[in-house]
Amino acid sequence: MSRVPDLASRIRDAALLEGDFVLSSGERSSFYVDKYLFSTEPHLLADVGDALAAQIPEEVERLAGVELGAVPLVVAAALATGLPYVIVRKSAKEHGSSAGRSIEGNIYPGEKVALIEDVVTTGTQAVKAARNLVAAEIDVVTIVAVLDRREETGEELGGFPFRSLLRMDDLRVVKPH
């Protein structure tokens, strides 16, 4: 995709932090990508939404985003594609009219969905959200992440088709000696 190199440098400039960080996996890292630093910038978010939209298979009828970090991303992708979306909660809501639900928004059994995620380190949250959709009789066509931090590569994540806009190598800059 022609926009990915530009997108990589823009995300790197906006959100790549260096230091000593503990990742969601519990592992330590000398760098961290703060998804909120790129997803809260309107022009960058719009371009990320366009890039995500380009990764959505044609048969997809609805988008889904994992709360909380993927919500602005799924909104941007929905605006870029015109597809409706739902939000997949990490745990079921305990109050209000949607008590007990783990999926917010309209969705129907048999629908073909692309799940949007922000940063995948281990993939645990994305896979859990995809399994929640499957439990609701939804067909998860693919999981699409902005950034894949995993050490291994592969076109699957927890048994689901997977793709990402960027890998960590796309964000790292090799400094001349």
What do you see in this structure?
Helix content is 32%, strand content 30%. The strands form 2 sheets. Strands 5-4-3-6-7-9-8 form a 7-stranded mixed β-sheet. The protein has a two-stranded antiparallel ribbon with strand order 1-2. It is globular, with a radius of gyration of 16 Å. The chain has a single domain, classed as Rossmann fold, CATH 3.40.50.2020. The two termini are 30 Å apart. The mean pLDDT is 89. The chain has 177 residues and is α/β, with parallel strands linked by helices. Helix 1 (4-15) packs across helix 3 (42-54) and helix 3 (42-54) crosses helix 4.
Provide key terms for this protein.
177 residues, alpha/beta, Rossmann fold, seven-stranded mixed beta sheet, two-stranded antiparallel sheet, 6 helices, 30% strand
Show the helix and strand layout.
Blueprint: H1 4-15, E1 16-22, E2 28-33, H2 35-39, H3 42-54, E3 62-66, H4 71-81, E4 85-88, E5 103-104, E6 112-120, H5 124-135, E7 139-148, E8 156-157, E9 160-167, H6 168-171
Parallel strand pairs: 3-4, 3-6, 6-7, 7-9
Antiparallel strand pairs: 1-2, 4-5, 8-9
Helix pairs in contact: 1-3, 3-4
Net shape: globular
Main pleated-sheet profile? 7 strands, mixed
Average pLDDT score: 89
The count of strands amounts to: 9
State the separation between the terminal residues, measured CA to CA. Answer: 30 Å
Helix/strand structural class: alpha/beta
Percent of residues in beta strands? 25-35%
Query: What is the C-level CATH assignment?
Result: Alpha Beta
What is the string of SSEs from the N terminus onward?
Answer: HEEHHEHEEEHEEEH
CATH-defined topology: Rossmann fold
Strand arrangement across the biggest beta sheet? 5-4-3-6-7-9-8
Binned, the helix content reads 25-40%
- What is the radius of gyration? 16 Å
Please tell me the CATH architecture by its name.
3-Layer(aba) Sandwich
Instruction: Report the total helices.
Output: 6
Count of spatially separate domains? 1
Runs in which pLDDT lies below 50 for 5 or more consecutive residues are: none
